[in-house]
Amino acid sequence: RKEVEQDPGPFNVPEGATVAFNCTYSNSASQSFFWYRQDCRKEPKLLMSVYSSGNEDGRFTAQLNRASQYISLLIRDSKLSDSATYLCVVNGDNFNKFYFGSGTKLNVKP
Amino acid sequence: DAGVTQSPTHLIKTRGQQVTLRCSPKSGHDTVSWYQQALGQGPQFIFQYYEEEERQRGNFPDRFSGHQFPNYSSELNVNALLLGDSALYLCASSSTPNYGYTFGSGTRLTVV
C-alpha cells in the first residue's frame, strides 16, 4: 500500500464552484501534513499546512481526520488560476522524510 | 531574498554516464532534501542532508549519493545513469523540517 494516495482526477469544475479533494495516508503515526500546488512543469509550492483543528486561508480550507487517516482540501469560489495539480504531503516515521501523493489535477473552466 | 536555486536547469546525458546536480538553499535554511519526480507522478524522496550528513534516505540505490557543504548548499550525484533516471530532480530546503519545504525549480534530466 502506498504511503499517500490521491484521486488523480481530473476534476473539471466551472468558475465559482466549490471543489474538495481527499488524500489518505497509511502511517497512523504521521504528524505533519501539507497541501502543495504544482503548475505544469513547475516546482511544487506550499499551499498550506494542515492542523489537527483544521485551518482556513481565504478560499482554501484544510482538514485532518486522524481516525480515518485522511486530509482534505476545500476550495471555494474556484478561479481559473486555481487550475493546477494539488499534492498531498505526509511525514513518515520521523520528521525527516515526507511522502507525496501523485497529485489531483484540477481544471477550472470559464 | 533568494529562494532555492538549482543548477543546471536542463541536462542531457548518455546511459552509463555520471551527473552532478547542485542546490543552494533558501537563506536561513539548513536542511536540504532531494526528490525525483517522474512525469505524471508525485515527487519521490531521495535523501535529506543536515549538518553535512545524510540524515534520512528513501528507497533509491547507492548510485544516488549526495553531499552537503558548510554553507548548506548540496549536490546530488547519480552514477551509471539509466534511462529510468530521466526525471525532474527537485531540491527542497527548510529550517524546520516539519514546517514545510521550499522547492527549487528543479533540474530536468534526460538520459538517452
Structure characteristics:
heterodimer, A: 110 residues, mainly beta, six-stranded mixed β-sheet, globular, B: 112 residues, seven-stranded mixed β-sheet, four-stranded antiparallel β-sheet, 51% strand
Protein model, in words:
- The complex is a heterodimer of chains A (110) and B (112).
- Chain A has 110 residues and is an all-beta fold.
- In chain A, strands 2, 4, 5, 9, 10 and 11 form a six-stranded mixed beta sheet that branches. In chain A, strands 1-3-8-7-6 form a five-stranded antiparallel beta sheet, with no helix packed on it.
- In chain A, a hairpin with a 6-residue loop joins strand 9 and strand 10.
- Chain A has no helices and eleven strands.
- Chain B has no helices and eleven strands.
- Chain B is globular.
- In chain B, strands 2, 4, 5, 6, 9, 10 and 11 form a seven-stranded mixed beta sheet that branches.
- Chain A binds chain B through residues 4, 6, 31-32, 34, 42-46, 49, 87, 89, 91, 94-103, and chain B through 33, 35, 40-45, 48, 50, 55-56, 58, 90, 97-106.
